[in-house]
Amino acid sequence: MNMEEFIEFCKEGNPISGEDKELHGLLTQCSFEAQRITMDLNTSYHSKEEIVEIFSELTGYKVDSSFMCFPSFYTDFGKNITIGKNVFFNTGCSFQDRGGIFVGNGSLIGMNVTISTLNHGLSIETRNTTYPLPVKIGENVWIGSSSSILPGVTIGDNAVVAAGAVVTKDVPQNTVVAGVPAKVIKKLV
Predict the structure, then answer these.
(1) HEC letters along 48-110
(2) Is the dihedral of CA 39, 41, 42, 45 positive or negative?
(3) Which end of the chain offers a freer environment for a tag, N or C, measured as fewer CB atoms within 10 Å?
(4) 58 contacts 81 by C-beta, under 8 angstroms
(5) What is the pLDDT of residues 146-170, one digit of tens each?
(6) What does DSSP assign to residue 134?
(7) 1 pLDDT above the threshold of 90
(8) 144 and 110 in contact (C-beta within 8 Å)?
(9) Which among 36, 62, 120, 186 is annotated as catalytic?
(10) How many CB atoms are located within 10 Å of the residue 185 CB?
């Protein structure tokens, strides 16, 4: 399997066993490439335009020029992040994106937000296997600082995730969620 096929394999949501040396070798290559790119992003000053170019290199597609990120930013894969128009990432975000992270137009992601798309098997026999589930963030979503979004979650359009929330289930559109685990506390008009 070449790298392009491997990235497509990951985008299809396939699990990867720790026993599969070929896939782990390709995964390690992707991870080191993401580390190289984010180290460049995080260790020196870049203009807004340069940051868009760095994210384009990281994700493997042309990120819209309206995108803005305040570094630092971390990711373990990089090739399964899709960013809409007029999206903002604040400093300290950490994305585990192999399962797919989709960020809709106009969404704002606060400081130190963690988005996870992988889980391990619970049994001893499958504990070294990672199972991906995508995270989908709708349009005009605001995710507050230090929130955690777990695998398989969809956040509806115009929703707000309060600072520090741990989102374990889908968030309906036009709602505010807060808490650990996050629960709907308010409907927006």
Answers:
(1) HHHHHHHHHHHHCCCCCCCCEECCCEEECCCCCEEECCCCEECCCEEEECCCCEEECCCCEEC
(2) positive
(3) C
(4) yes
(5) 999 999 999 999 999 999 999 999 9
(6) -
(7) no
(8) yes
(9) 120
(10) 13
Which token pair is 143? 């995710």
98 half-sphere exposure, CB direction, 13 A CA radius: 22
| Three-state DSSP class for residue 137 | strand
* Model confidence band, residue 3 (pLDDT cutoffs 50, 70, 90): confident
The set of residues, in sequence order, having a beta carbon less than 8 Å from that of 28 and lying 6+ positions away, is: none
Examine the residue annotation and report whether 120 is marked as an active-site residue of this protein: yes
Rounded average pLDDT over 103-120 = 97
Q: Which of 18, 23, 16, 33 is nearest to 2 (CA)?
A: 23
